[in-house]
## 1
Amino acid sequence: MDLSFIILLAPLLAAILVALFGNKFGRKFSHLVTSISVLIALILSCVLFSRVFIAQQTPYYVEMFRWLDLGALDAMRIRISIGVFVGPLSTLMMIVVCSVSFCVHVFSIGYMAEDESYNRFFCYIAFFTFSMLVLVAANNFLQLFIGWEAVGLSSYLLIGFWFTKQSATAASLKAFLVNRVSDIGLVLGVAVVFYCFHTFEFAEVFAQISAGETAKQVDIFGYSVSAFDAIAILLFVGAMGKSAQFPLHVWLPDSMEGPTPISALIHAATMVTAGVFMVARLAPIYELADIARSFILIIGTITAISMGFVAILQYDIKRIVAYSTISQLGYMVIGLGVSAYSASIFHLVTHAFFKALMFLVAGAVILALHHKQDVKDMGGLSKKMPISFICSVVAALALVGFPGTSGFFSKELIIESVHNSGGEYAQLFYILALFGVLLTSIYSFRFVFIVFLGKTRLSDKDYNHVHEPTKSVTIPLVLLAIPALLSGAVLFDSLILNNALNISALVDKSNPLALATSELSGWCDMLLSAVKHPAALILILLGAGIAWFITKSAEFKRHKQFSMHGIVSNGYYLNEIYKLFIVHPAHIIASIAHKFFDLIVIDKVFVNGIAVLVEKSSRLFKKSQTGYVYHYLLAMLVFVVVFGWLSIRNGVAL
Amino acid sequence: MIDTIIFYSICTVTIGAALAVITAKKSVYAIMAMVLTFFSAATLWVLLNAEFLAMMLVVVYVGAVMVLFLFVVMMTDAETVQHRPSKLLSVFIGVPTIAFILELIIVISKTDYKVVADGAAGFDVKAIGYALFTEYVYATEVAAVILLVAIIAAISLPGVKPPKKIEKDLDPNHADKRNRLSIVKMSSAASNNVGSES
Amino acid sequence: MIEIKDVLVLSSILFSLGVAGVIMHRRNLVRLLMCVELILLAVNINFIAFSNSLGDISGQIFVFFILTIAAAESAVGLALIITIYREYNTVDLDKLNSLKE
């Protein structure tokens, strides 16, 4: 019996236990049960990881139960099962999910200590961990979809966790609706996959591709297009919502209404990377979809650059981090766009650690300042909160990709892959990606400077009260700071050079990632190359300088509306555009539907009309139901006579 | 020839008697008409070589069941129940009934019935008894049990008296002290204390 | 010689009269039961006629059983009528409507 299914069941069981008995056994029970279950999942996923990575076991699939048996199509039985796929990519994701989730659990013990809905929080967060594990353990499209929707659900529940706050419920609804829009793409993509390949299994689709099924066409609105392009773009539309790519990113900044640990876990480390994970998991399909990859590259670049600008001009501590998350997701998507799947996953892993760290630092600051989130009221906290300060510096260095930190390896790989992608506009995208590094550097260091350095803008009384929060808050920070610093160097050799994810083997030989790493023999070489090609390093230092300048000269005055500054700081008015062109017409249509269709057609004609009709007709027919047997007998006699006469007239054989 | 004449006259009597059963003004007359119907039917059965059953019909129905009916009519208010249907209802009943009879006659006349034996052999009591206690022995037993149940039901049902819900008459003129005052024996706290001390 | 069709016509007339009687005497329980007896008699005549023409004793056996059951039914039915009369002082079906009200 394989133990891998316990990874899925432990968080689910914990969530159910807390949901049922949380209020009975109290807070200690809630956080102990959920944390221990996630710890169990973490240990088990480490075991699986060592099996797959160190012992080089071939990937295998553990079926938990057979969900559907749909009969045979084209001599292939279509069976849908729920289970755990133990492959390199899945186990790596499991470790990321479980470790970040564990840190967040521990962090939340301190962070949520004063919250009334403590037990509900832990129930949700454990359920989220379960859903995310279902997603990454998927071996077929339907399980992927289940996990996809389940993480969406838990995200919705957790954004709207403080449901008495109007803005929180609005944000949760927005997140849910925007994700529904993109999920349509995902569902259609899965449908096209089934239409073309007659299967839901990843492995069978890949087998058909490697068997030479590379020229499938599908008709869409009468145009015959490559099936792979259609599938890839449709699935990527799903990923755009989940991974907050421009222009469907609008829900992510608003989702910061949720508790900060949630922002760290769901909206930085795990759920938002689900789209990147999916594309990497389905790399063989994307490798055959050139148009789709160009599309992905463009979307990723737009996201990375435009959201970087927005991040610079934010004043809400969480929104700064949120926009930087979107921008980093843009980098991952750029990597996918140039077929550097391993590099994207690498960046996903390192980003999960340092961005979760950054969010938790923000959470610690918010906690220390009694839920103040405006950076205009911060500054000079480094003396009062040294651990948080050091951790934020670590996170910022990793985020900008300072040589040696984890972010350096992953981001540098993506940029080098763009450089080597050899497309027509490869150099343009390369320059844009480098420019993104400058932006990243500015907003990351601005975050550190504005919050922790300089003169404090707090009142003296408040400032004196600021202190480092409890241990359960600081320990996760330290725990996350270690992989944020070191995971790059540790994972670089096995993940990239030894190609442990085994994605590139499925794809083209002239992979830009392979070209970028062809001259490297270890992570030390990578460090040396940063010195040899110091463009990125120079940009980072330049960005730090600009950030210092911005913070120093920060006058924090209100800017005029519709200036360039105003446009960027408001996120390009995308929310307003959506409101004008989508939400507003939808409201009009809805009010028409309400007034005419619902009130008149449905209510008056159908609902009340049918009720009145039934009442009137039953009053009529009631008279026939006298309750006297002789009436019924008489009716019977009459009808026997009538039908007897009919049958005699028609000469029914007697 | 004589058979045919007898048959048709029996038919006439039977139908007339049956008509009388349903149209008679009084229930007692209806029962008398019913007796006549059964008698003529028994005659018919004799013509159809079923002498034993004809005897059974007379003994059981005329002798027992009809007498029972007569008693019931006399014991209840069956005579007083108004049973004349209105004119409209008579038409509603009469027209379909006549139509139904006509249809049945058409169906019967159109159907070709095969005739195997012409009753020459006939069945005597011995043959019936033999069939009853060999081939149909279980059915006979069940019928016997049903008869037993019917006997028990017929005896016990009218014997069950419904609980009369008549209040005990509390006429103040005839009430004595037992109707007005009741002395209940109760343990008092004092006696309990005494008991515990002793 | 008795034609089987003639007997069948006779029994069908008796049957129809029985049905008409049930409808007519809807209020009087006793006469309703009598009309049911009339219907049963029509059925019995049919059985006897077919038994005679087919030379099969089963028909007569059936009539035997029907007579038995019909006697039992009349006995129980009449007993019920007596019981009802004792409870409600009437056998008028129109007045026996306590379930309806």
Note: The mean pLDDT of chain C is 86.
## 2
Amino acid sequence: MVIEWVLLGAGIAILVGIFMLLSRVYLGPTVFDRILATNAMGTKTVIFLALLGFISKRPEFLDTALAYAIINFVSTIAILKFVEFKKIG
Amino acid sequence: MHWTDIATALFLGLGCVIAVTGSMGVIRLPDFYSRLHAAGKTDSLAQALIMVGLLFQTWKYEGLILNAAARLVLITMFILVTSPIATHAITKAAYLHGLEPWRKEKSRDA
């Protein structure tokens, strides 16, 4: 089937994007560059998990993707608060 | 080939092009405030396009159609709300921290 190769190609493209962002996390001159790239990586991970569910014909992976989206948002806000105020809470 | 497969291929292709372009912009652009453009906007759009593309595939799963479709819509709505909020929070934190925007004349002098 053609559609499986389309899904696989999309997954590989998203992985390439994740590794490009990972190089910015490694290089980034300021801490905010690193946080920004990590946030974008988290969004691309959610996309990749959704694609993985349809590649392996098990859409139950979407639960994991939803949980990862929530964790990504909360962790970004928490890291920013820690960087800005040096404490959480 | 069913017509939903063609729709999926179109949406996934467009979404992947936008996602890889955004990642390339995060690598190549010169400073933090211009990298925000590449990361913040392309993320929401590519994610929405890919989720719409996957939405055309849900009819193949018997008994899970509503389940998978509802979750795809839920993830799309959640990221469309939270991704701009996170980007705005990062920008505001960087601005309050005192990060200087990049200028062409300044880099030419240096």
Note: Chain A has a mean pLDDT of 89.
